[in-house]
Amino acid sequence: MNQTLRITEIFHSLQGETRTVGLPTVFVRLTGCPLRCQYCDTAYAFSGGELMTLEQILEQVAGYRPRYVCVTGGEPLAQPNCIPLLKALCDAGYQVSLETSGALDIAPVDVRVSRVVDLKTPGSAEVGRNRYENMAELTRNDQVKFVICSREDYDWAVSKIIEYRLDQRAGELLMSPSHHELEARSLAEWIIADNLPVRLQLQLHKYLWNDEPGH
Q1: Can you list the domains of the chain with their CATH numbers?
Q2: 42 labelled as ligand-binding?
Q3: DSSP characters for the chain?
Q4: Is residue 70 marked as binding?
Q5: pLDDT of 64-117, one tens digit each?
Q6: Can you tell me which residues bind Mg(2+) (predicted)?
C-alpha cells in the first residue's frame, strides 16, 4: 500500500458516458498523458497533480460511499501503479471502469475492471498511436469507444468494427460526436442508416457542466 500515484483530482459526479451513463460515480483522474488528441478536454491533467499513496486514494474514494468508480486521466496506464490501484478498488467491492486511450497494453488490468478502450480516429490526430494488439484482449466486460469528428472518421470506425469483429469481442461499442466539431444528429442518422451495433453517447457532463474540472 506504499505505492504512489500522481493524481490530478478525485471527485464525485455523474458518469457522462459509457454503459453506466447518468449514474453517480467517483472519478480518480491520474496525471499525465503521452498523447495529444486535437479535441482533448482534459489538458489540465497533463502535468502537475499531487502524489498520493494507494491508501490515501482508497480512503478519499471511500468517503463518497460509491458504487461505481472510474479511473481516468490523462492516460491512467502511463503510471505503472495504476494496475495495483485498479485491483485494490475491485477488492474494495466497487464496480470499476478504466478509461484508456488504447495506446498502452491493457492485458495487465484486473479482469474485474471494465476497460473502456478509445480507438483513436484519423480526426483525433493520434491514429498512429492505436495499439491494435489490445483488440485480442477484449472481453464482454469491456467497451470500445470512438470519438467521431467527420464522416471519414465514421467510415474508418465502421471498418475497424468489421476488421476486428468488435461487436463480438466487446460488451459495448460507443460512438460520440466530437463536441463542436460534428452534429450529433448527423452521427445518429449514419448509425440508423447502417443499423450499426453501437450506442450513441453525447457526453452528459458537457451539457451539464461544460467541462468544468471536478465534474
Answers
A1: 4-209 (3.20.20.70)
A2: yes
A3: ---EEEEEEEEEEE--SSTTTTSEEEEEEE---S---TT-S-GGGSS--EEEEHHHHHHHHHTT--SEEEEESS-GGGSTTHHHHHHHHHHTT-EEEEEE-SSS--TTS-TTSEEEEEPPPGGGT-GGG--GGGGGG--TT-EEEEEE-SHHHHHHHHHHHHHTTHHHHSSEEEEEEPTTTS-HHHHHHHHHHHT-S-EE---HHHHHHTT-TT-
A4: no
A5: 999 999 999 989 999 999 999 999 999 999 999 999 999 999 999 999 999 999
A6: 42
Q: Find out whether 37 is annotated in a ligand binding site.
A: yes
The three cell numbers locating residue 47: 502535468
Predicted TM-score (pTM) above 0.85:
yes
- The answer to whether 15 is annotated as binding is yes
What grid cell was written down for 57?
A: 486514494
Q: Which amino acid is at 198?
A: V
Any binding-site annotation on 40? Answer: yes
Residue 145 CA, chain-centre distance (Å), reads 8
Per-position b or e across 114-146, b if 16+ CB within 10 A of its CB: bbbbbbbbebbbbeebbbeebbebbeeebbbbb
Q: Any known ligand binding at 94?
A: no
The answer to whether the beta carbons of residues 129 and 103 sit under 8 Å apart is yes
Identify the band that residue 214 occupies on the pLDDT scale cut at 50, 70 and 90.
Answer: low
Rounded to whole angstroms, how far apart are CA atoms 199 and 184? 12
Q: What's the CA gap between 102 and 136, in Å, rounded? A: 12
72 is in an annotated binding site: yes
Q: Is 16 annotated as a binding residue?
A: yes
